[in-house]
Amino acid sequence: MTIKAIFYSKFDPHQGRKVVHQVPEGSILTGAEVPPATGGLQTNNSSNNTSSALLNFSTIAQFLIPRQSLCGNLISLSPPPLTQHTPSTLILSHPICLTSSHYPRNEFIFNFALVLGDPSTIDVPSYKSVVKKLAHLMRSLEEQSHFLSDDDSPCNTGKIYSLCEMLMEDLNNYCECMIPIDELNTLNIKLFPTLPNPASVKPWHVPLFTVRIDTMIDENWDLTMLRIIPFINGINSVKRIATLADADIKLTKKCIKHFLYYGCVLLLDIFSFNNIYAVTAEFAHMIAKDTEMQKECARYVNMAFAPGGQEEAIVDGSASERRTSGLTSTTIGLQDDEIWPLTGKGDAIDGVGIVQLFACLRQGFTVREWYARNANMLANIDMRRFITFGVIKGFLYRVHRYAIRTQKGTIGAADGYRGGALDEHTHDHENTQFLTRSMSSERHFSEAPLLGRRKNHHNHHQSNGKGGEVPDFQFMNARLIEFLDGTHCFDEICTELEISEKELLEQLKSREIGEAVVICR
What we know:
Number of strands: 19
Family: Belongs to the NPR2 family.
Number of helices: 16
Low-confidence stretches: 36-48, 314-331, 412-461, 464-471
Radius of gyration: 33 Å
Keywords: Membrane, Transmembrane, Transmembrane helix
Mean pLDDT: 81
GO biological process, one term: positive regulation of autophagy
Distance between the termini: 46 Å
Largest sheet: 6 strands, antiparallel
GO molecular function, one term: GTPase activator activity
Strand content: 15-25%
Number of domains: 4
Protein name: Nitrogen permease regulator 2
C-alpha cells in the first residue's frame, strides 16, 4: 500500500490549524494526543490511540497550513518519526488560500495531504500530480458552492471524508479513480509512472518493436508516426526508415524517441558481416547455464519458424532481465526436441551447440569469419536474429570501429573547403534522397540512384565559395576528414557520407586522406 493516509486540514478561526478528516482514523495525531515515550510505561488507551499513528500534526502544522505567501505551491516534507519503530514517511500537500468577505478574517486556508511510505521505494513524481489536481478541483468547488467551508459534518464523517476514503482505496488498488462529487463535478485521477528520459536517437540506429504495435495503433496518432511504423522491422536504420516513408529525418527521430520513452522499441546496430561482437561477463551466468533461455533462443533463431511481416521483440519491464520472444503460431505445442535448428547435415543443434556458437564470437573476429568457421551449424539459423538475441539479452555487445587521422595527406587544401558551400551541404545533406549503403543489410535497396551518382562523380563539382569549383572526390575527402578524430564510429561515418564500409576503408588508405589508424572498442 503506497498511500499510507490521506487527511484534510484547515485553519479554523476559533481553533486555529486543525485536522478535520483523516483516513484511516488514528493515523494522524492531533495536539490533544501525546505519543508514548520510548522505553516508558503507557496505558492501554494511549497504546490503542497511537499504535497505528504515522505522524504528529502539531509538529508540522505550520507547513501544512502555512502563511499566505506559501499557499498555492507544492510542499513535500518528511515528518520526524514518533518513535524509533515508526516507519519513515513523506507528506505531499498543496495548500490553498482563498480570500473573500464571505469568510471570517476574509480568508480560508485548507489543504489535502497524502502520506506516502518510504520515498526511496516510491515513484514520488507521479503522486505530485495527484495532489495538485485534487487541490485545484477542491478550489474550484469551494469557489463555486463553498463545498468545504460550509461543511459542518463531525470529524471523520460526511461526504468529504467519504471522498478521501474512496480516493485512497482506489489509488492503492487500481492506480486510478473516478469519483462523482455532484451532478457537475467528478474526480478523475490516474497514476502515470515517471519514466527516465530516452537515449538519443541517431540516424544509424536500428529500432525494433518490443510490443505488438498493430494492436495499439489509433487513427488519431501523429501522421509521421503512422507512416514510419510499417518500416520499423529491426533491419532498417532510422535514416532508411525516413527515406522509405518519405518523412523528415528529424520528425522520424522524434517519433522513434517517443516509442523509446514508453518502452515500445529497442535501439540496435545495423547488422553487417563486417561487424564484430563479443560476449560480456554475464554470458557465463545467463544462457550458458539457463536451459530455458537456450530453448527460447532456438525458437527465435530457427529459420523453420521465421515469422512473416513485421518483427518484434517482447521485452519485460526489468532492464536486467531482458527477454525476447520469436514465437509464432507454428511453435505452439511443439516438443522440446522439435525446436532445435538443424545443421547442414541434418543433425539437431541443442543448447550446448547454441552456447558454443555464442562463445565463438570475440574481439577481432568479424561475423563473416565467424560464419565461415561455423557454416555447417549455421545452415538453418537466422544469423541476424541470433546476434540480436544476444544483444537484447545483454550477454553480447558490439565492438565498434573508429578512425583517427595521424598525418595529413596531399589534399591539405581540402581542409579549406569548410567554408561557404561545404557548410550549406553539411546542413542540407540530411534531406538527400539517396540511401545509406553502409551495411550489407541495406545494400539491396535502391542501388540505382546511388550508383548513378557515383558513376558520374568525376564530372560532378562543388563550389568552394570563392568562385571556383571543387572536384567531388576532394569534397568527399574534406567531409571525411571531419569524422577522423576517433569519436565517430564507422556506422555514423557511412550513414552520414552515404558510402559502404568497404568504400570507407578504401578511402582511408588513399594518399589524399593521409595516414589513419583504425581502433576497435
